[in-house]
TrEMBL record:
<keyword id="KW-0687">Ribonucleoprotein</keyword>
<comment type="function">
    <text>One of the primary rRNA binding proteins, it binds directly to 16S rRNA central domain where it helps coordinate assembly of the platform of the 30S subunit.</text>
</comment>
<comment type="similarity">
    <text>Belongs to the universal ribosomal protein uS8 family.</text>
</comment>
<dbReference type="InterPro" id="IPR035987">
    <property type="entry name" value="Ribosomal_uS8_sf"/>
</dbReference>
<keyword id="KW-0689">Ribosomal protein</keyword>
<dbReference type="InterPro" id="IPR000630">
    <property type="entry name" value="Ribosomal_uS8"/>
</dbReference>
<keyword id="KW-0694">RNA-binding</keyword>
<dbReference type="InterPro" id="IPR047863">
    <property type="entry name" value="Ribosomal_uS8_CS"/>
</dbReference>
<keyword id="KW-0699">rRNA-binding</keyword>
<dbReference type="GO" id="GO:0005840">
    <property type="term" value="C:ribosome"/>
</dbReference>
<dbReference type="Pfam" id="PF00410">
    <property type="entry name" value="Ribosomal_S8"/>
</dbReference>
<comment type="subunit">
    <text>Part of the 30S ribosomal subunit. Contacts proteins S5 and S12.</text>
</comment>
<protein>
    <recommendedName>
        <fullName>Small ribosomal subunit protein uS8</fullName>
    </recommendedName>
</protein>
Length: 133
């Protein structure tokens, strides 16, 4: 099956797994999805991840993170911003702030996939892939 927006599919799979209180979600892999997964792990939104090289493209297994007592997920909201039909770009001057700095915006820049704060530090702009908080 051909998917027109693999990043939206990735985010939807994570969103659905959180709503269903799943511990692990399996996602078809790509280099961009691997980089987004690494950013989510580095910022503490997911517990762990594993790349499995099976088949032609492989899969990403993402272990979702929940609060140990209240069982509230670490990812409250994850939404796609730049879509294939309407790309959204941000320069260094108009970088988005998610929840006034409490959330992160994941950007695809010329220096790789990074958060909005890292993009400000590196003084680069890029395509705003998604907001996470």
């Amino acid at each position: 099956m051909m998917n027109t927006d693999p990043i939206a599919d990735y985010l939807t799979r994570v969103r659905n797994a959180i709503k269903a209180n799943h511990r692990v979600v399996e996602i078809p892999a790509s280099n961009l999805k691997k980089e987004i997964t690494k950013v989510l792990f580095d910022k503490g939104y997911i517990a762990n991840y594993k790349f499995e090289e099976v088949g032609p493209q492989g899969t990403i297994k993402v272990a979702l993170k929940y609060h140990p007592i209240t069982k509230i997920p670490a990812i409250r909201s994850i939404q796609r911003i730049s879509k294939p039909g309407l790309r959204k770009y941000a320069g260094t001057t108009n970088m988005p702030r998610v929840l006034n700095g409490l959330g992160i915006a994941i950007l695809s820049t010329s220096k790789g996939v990074m958060t909005d704060k890292e993009a400000r530090q590196h003084n680069v702009g890029g395509e705003v892939l998604c907001y996470v908080y």
